[in-house]
Amino acid sequence: MIVTSANLRAARYLTGALLTGVATLPMPLLLLGASATVAAAGLGFVLLPLALLGLRRWTGPAWRRAHAYLGEPVPPRRPDPPAGFRRVITDPATRRDLAWVAAHLVVGLPFGAVGLLALAGPPVTLAQMALWWLAPVDRPLSLLAVPVTSWATALAAGAGQLLVCVALLLWAVRPLAGLHARMVRALLRPSSAERLAERVDVLTESRAGALEAHAAELRRIERDLHDGTQAQLVALAMRLGVAERTMADDPERARGLLREARDGAEEAMAELRGVVRTIYPPILADRGLDGAASALAARCPVPVTVAVDALGPLPAAVEATAYFVVAEALTNIAKHARAERASVAIRREGASLLITVADDGHGGADESRGSGLAGIRRRVAALDGATRLTSPPGGPTTLEVDLPCAS
Ligand SMILES: Nc1ncnc2c1ncn2[C@@H]1O[C@H](COP(=O)(O)OP(=O)(O)OP(=O)(O)O)[C@@H](O)[C@H]1O
Ligand SMILES: [Mg+2]
What we know:
alpha+beta; 3 domains; five-stranded mixed beta sheet; 11 helices; 7 strands; binds magnesium ion
């Protein structure tokens, strides 16, 4: 039998539970004290919610550790309830936190003690076996509850104690750690009704965002058409009118005006094409997302590798958003990153379209400094997607966007 890294991981997890368990010991007293002050002078109306909100923060790491131990992604926790005595007291998450305190003290402490024994037991026992003679004669060291007064007892009792610790490490810590992590997960997990309520909140927000983005987009298109194309067409109509009037008296001037009018018409058409491109880039219709991403990459001054999987049919809004994400990310790379190379990857994973744009530049992207990245986040949120930006100072920068595309 050999000790695997999984055994050590389990022992470390349990030892962590022991430490947090010990640190949680004063919690019931603290909460009782805070509740007692409710009766006295009403101070508790302030103190108790504070203590319970503190407890919420305190259970956060336990929630994350349990999921990390079970190898699961950590689901987001419910945000803190809005301040207020009644709200905090009646929040179901408060009941869960209190149940966690009780269970963590009753189960976490003994389980954690086993973890510590398994982890620290072997080296400590070996040290005790070697150094038993340093203990005062009237208070000899105990190994496996046997007082050690000779090398023979040190070796025999020490070997016994070592065996116990190793046996715990080999056979006890993994089931105990698994049990503990599952218990924490079950205790702190929001109920399905709460998860549903949370989902509705998120969807309401993203729906409001979508409506806002839609309205902003309509305003922008209206402004572009009004200030650009319409102004040019008005000028064009005026030139044609003057040309019509001067045609008989001054054909030379009329010809010049007609030439200007033709140039104006061409400009207006170019302007119109530009506006159309910002609504639904025609290249998407012509060459699909794959071809459009390659065209964007070819236009980027930094060498870009493009990897696009077979994507299957996508809703037009998702395709357009993906296009604008890649366009803005590559523009940023060209403008800010000072990168040697960059990459664009688009793939479909189940009902999601995943877009990753990365560069090896100097990093430090900060969406509060411009409107491009914030615009991406808004556009993506409007489709109920997620945006992740990693850009530590010194680089590299990775922008990941996750767009739900179940049609
Ligand atoms: N790939 C990148 N590498 C390094 N820095 C970046 C990168 N992308 C963005 N940044 C930094 O983050 C800031 C915000 O980017 P954002 O796209 O929001 O605005 P912008 O590009 O400056 O302006 P615009 O509103 O025209 O997009 C940029 O000003 C830049 O300093
Ligand atoms: Mg930008």
